[in-house]
Specification:
The chain is of the alpha/beta class. The chain folds into two domains: about 190 residues, Dipeptide transport protein (Rossmann fold); about 50 residues, Gyrase A, domain 2 (2-Layer Sandwich). Helix content is about 30%, strand content about 25%. It contains six helices and twelve strands. The strands form two sheets. It has a seven-stranded mixed β-sheet, with helices on both faces. Strands 6-5-10-12-11 form a five-stranded antiparallel β-sheet. Helix 1 packs parallel to helix 4. The termini are far apart. It binds zinc ion. Zinc ion binds next to loops. Zinc ion (ZN) binds next to loops.
Length: about 270
């Protein structure tokens, strides 16, 4: 079996604040060590269930250069750095049979969820054919478009609930309870790792039991942006239309939609 583990940072046990997830801020080095330990716990669980499994780990937060390569389980391949095709799920196109989301967070605007956002704070909402989705929903659809089921998701309670709404039968591993955007009641990192290892082992034993989500086609994507200037820029993408701060575009495939979403996010981060 080939498994892709996509590791974000905001949903890791112990993490509640951007100072722990942003390069060069004071607690970032601790945050990335916690993230690496969580990734290793999931790898261990997968390999416990299937010692012959091929495991890809995609660093999926911010610059995609957070996991400490030298401390990662040596049995995996690490996908690191950006920009790259399929972003948070790079590696999906290589014949993966199951995906796992670790350290994930709720979508923008969810009250009481730790570090909730959708791709960047500059995005207020993303709707796909009218349904609001965060990274969990977008990435679950992207995986599904490759025929890949997402068999495990971990993050705070809100992230796990968001995932369970889409894929009720899959394994979730909640590692903290949100008390606000920057506050949580969190498990000890070691306890979280133990639960992740167990959950991953359980999920890796039954990937075929979870059919991938149905992907609508064609896709209509709407993105609400915080800054009008970002909407002006996104409106320059051929085929995109702008109404107020909302950019809309059509796409034939989730890969195309995801590529345009990545571009829109990059545009929100450009200077004047
Ligand atoms: Zn992140």
């Amino acid at each position: 079996m080939k498994v892709l583990i996509s590791v974000d940072m905001e949903g890791i046990a112990g993490i509640v604040h951007p100072a722990e997830t942003t390069p060069e801020r004071y607690d970032y080095e601790r945050g990335r060590a916690l993230m690496t330990a969580a990734a290793n716990a999931v790898v261990e669980g997968v390999l416990e269930a299937d010692p012959a499994a091929e495991v890809l780990v995609a660093d999926a937060h911010g610059p995609y250069r957070n996991l400490l390569p030298e401390h990662l389980d040596r049995r995996v391949r690490l996908i690191r750095g950006k920009p790259r095709e399929l972003g948070m799920l790079a590696g999906l196109q290589t014949g993966v049979q199951a995906a796992m989301f670790v350290g994930y967070h709720a979508r923008a605007g969810v009250a009481g969820a730790v570090l909730a956002h959708t791709m960047t704070d500059a995005v207020l909402d993303v709707r796909i054919n009218g349904a609001s989705h965060g990274e969990i929903g977008i990435n679950t659809l992207l995986a599904a478009s490759f025929g890949v089921p997402v068999v495990l998701a971990s993050g705070d309670d809100a992230a796990c609930a968001e995932f369970s709404t889409l894929v009720p039968q899959a394994v979730t591993v909640p590692v903290k309870r949100g008390l606000g955007q920057h506050a949580a009641d969190t498990l000890h990192p070691d306890e979280a790792c133990e639960r992740l290892r167990h959950g991953a082992s359980q999920a890796a034993r039954q990937p075929a039991g979870h059919p991938p989500l149905a992907v609508p086609s064609p896709l209509r994507v709407e993105v609400d942006l915080a800054q009008p200037r970002s909407a002006d820029l996104a409106g320059l993408i051929p085929g995109a239309t702008v109404g107020g701060r909302t950019v809309a575009f059509d796409a034939e495939t989730m890969t195309a939609a995801y590529g345009i979403l990545q571009l829109i996010v990059a545009l929100t981060q450009t200077g004047p």
